[in-house]
Amino acid sequence: MQGALRSGKFPDGHASVSETSARVRRLVEPLTVPVLSVLTALLVGAGVIAAAGGDPLAAYAGLLEGAFGSARALSETAVWTTPYLLAGLGVACAFQGGLFNIGAEGQLALGAVAAAWAGYGLPALLGGTLPAALHVPLTLLCGATAGAAWAAIPGWLKTRTGAHEVINTIMLNYVALNAVSYLLNGPLKDPTPGNVIARTPLIAESARIPVFVDTLRVHWGFPLALALAALVGWGLERTTLGFAIRTVGASPDAARAAGMNVQRTVVLTMAMSGALVGLGGAIEVTALNHRHELGFSQGYGFDAIAVALLGRNHPGGVVLSALLFGAMRNGATRMQYLTQIPADVISVIQALILLFVAADGLVRRLYRLRGGAAPLTLTRGWGG
Amino acid sequence: MGSRRLAFVTLIVAVLVGAAALAGAPRVAAADVVVSMIATTLAVATPLTLGALSGVMCERAGVVNLGIEGMMLSSAFFGWAGALYASAAWGLPPGASLAFGVAMAIVSGGLLGLAHAALSVTFRVDQIIGGTVINLLAVGLTGFLNRQLFFERTGPFGGVVPRSPGVLPRLHLPGLADLPVVGRIFEQQPITLTAILLVVVAHLALFRTRWGLRVRAVGEHPRAAATVGIDVRRLRYESVILGGCLAGLGGAYFTLESVPSFEPLMTNGRGFIALAAMIFGNWTPTGAFAAALVFGAAQALQINLQLFRDQIPPSWSFLQHSSIVGLLPYLLTMLILTGVIGKTTPPAADGKPYDG
Hints:
The complex is a heterodimer of chains A (384) and B (356). Chain A is mainly alpha-helical and 384 residues long. In chain A, 72% of the residues lie in helices and 0% in strands. The chains are: A mainly alpha (384), B mainly alpha (356). Chain B: Keywords: Cell membrane, Membrane, Transmembrane, Transmembrane helix. Chain B: This is ABC transporter permease.
């Protein structure tokens, strides 16, 4: 009876007020906590800057100017965003499958080293030169494969022995960093006479990803990363494999009962995650540095965890959070130049963002928000 | 600890010590190398022992602590900064400065423990993410404060790192340290000796006191514990804060006992290896200590091979790359986690938020 009355009041074709507001709420709701988290982290960060004797307003003005103030600033923001986006996508993929990939740092380094090797060594190996149309994709493929193989190890160990991927991905970070240090000081070291730096030779011209404009560093890797984000989003939502990944992530038991091959999915998820991260490292080499040098990765791999969580492990969200992180890292240099506040303060703010996103109950209590999504559960103890 | 795993620990430590003796053989008497290996093993195992004890304390109460690495890193910094302030700004003598530094390290570890407890007990954040938050926060905060306090012209010391009060002195244990040949093993610095003592204390506290029984009950079956009147949240807070203090003392080892300086990221994954030691030690203080010794021996071998690097035969020359031998502890951790040396069982409610 009531339903009939209501439909009489609101003829077909007109959304009721409550329906519209529900739609708005559905659109705004997932953004509320991340946005409030970022604002809160910036506020606390201002406190830290003030406590350290700096002027927070001047610092943040410098940050904004450095990130968006000119064509060059925008270009640099895109350059910084690219590895964050790919590494963040990789970590988010693993999270979707119920796996915690803390090994992005190592996968990134190996992807970079493999790409550097393919960039300078592959033409000679295949006898002569390669056309760029072939060499660039091959180089990127090498980087992605290295990352995928490295990440697949903890996935395989988890399915085979039950060893938790959290510790194994962390251990493989240290193994990778040690191995890369060995390679760059030994077999892959730039043989140029007088070179004392642990780095590879420059990659061939044919392996380099081009820039858009000669005067700016922004390169084709950036749109490539954006396209991959769209592809990953589509793959997770619309393909069988994507469905399997999400089901295993939500409940391995349910997936098993439904006849899915959980073990294979776990290994594939880790490999996909590592491929995206490794590609991030490969693009840094082929588009930006044109070689791999020891210690280029300044914690991208760990920040990628924050990028993924801030983006709620959703590819679209990851694009936004990677842009935020890229802008902050890029702007920090200008901020330090203008205000003498160490750029490291950005790391504090980023950790605080992760804190508030993770402790979403804290933010909700702080701003008296009601309701909320179910808390994110990733881990079921060490037993997996 | 099962006999199989005890045999494994003994075997690995023996192999590593033997390898060092072999590498040093042409230059130094084998007995001296063995004694120095054991002494170094005990010393470098210290942060692992304390980190693993921290893990045991937290996880016995049902809280996974992935933030041990970050707790140790920030304690290493705050301990060091505290000692520097005490000696350079307040003019305290070196001994008092170092003691103040150790206290600062323990307090900062305890505060991060409190933060982790708040995240995982009160806000019921996924505990692995909570630990990751603490790790990232520690990296950012120590990097920022280190630069701001000691390397900026606007800082309190005008951008010049003040003279450090050095490291904690070796203690001469009367009787034991006077023994011929092996006496050197017992000449250790205070945090190393305290860590060994704390293994015993933690064992007694967990398995011989009412409090320990309650902690274990909370980690196994919190609901059952609650029905007999145990305050689950309170006990979890206590254990995690205590665990933070233990990790804090482990952090003090890096800057107040090992070397008198702070480097960003200097804990280098020791907090994570400590977690593996805890798992291998089956969540017991004594087992964790034995496992920490395995990693300590691997690291001691690395240090000793550096010493004897010019004596390594040419066919083994890749061992001269410190990065190759540096892989040992990490690979060992992975091997141990595969369970080839026997499965271990975590507390039943480990990692699960309690919502009673």
